[in-house]
Amino acid sequence: MKPTTLYIILFFVMIAVHFGLWEWLKIGFDVVFFRYYIFLTLLFVMVITVLSIIKNQFPQYIGFGFLGLVMVKMAALFIAMGQLELSTVPNYKLHFAIPYLVSLILETLFAVKLIQFQDASAAEKDEKNQETTSL
């Protein structure tokens, strides 16, 4: 299974668990919940996609791309917070910060995996170059 697929599956498992808890606690505000997760899913998929593109085009800048995308994601969430009407939900900081942080952790793990793969392939290329120059 590809790492991208694994992280996307884990993201949707997190949504299902949070939604299950949401329904079990009978909090209500399903429309706000649904709009927030649509927005968070779009941001998550954007980060994964852009990091994959950066890996293919500019592999040495994966870390910088990740930092920039995290800043864009946070700014977009603050801008859209009023439109999503998150403050209408009681204890909204608890209910909406945890899914954001879980998605951030998944994105971070994905970026680390890309960087490790990049470092491993760069080390392999260096070994091959050293072998050919020593012959």
From TrEMBL:
UniProt entry keywords in alphabetical sequence: Membrane, Transmembrane, Transmembrane helix
Transmembrane segments: 5-22, 34-54, 61-84, 96-115
Protein name: Uncharacterized protein
Lineage, uppermost ranks: Bacteria, Pseudomonadati, Bacteroidota, Flavobacteriia, Flavobacteriales
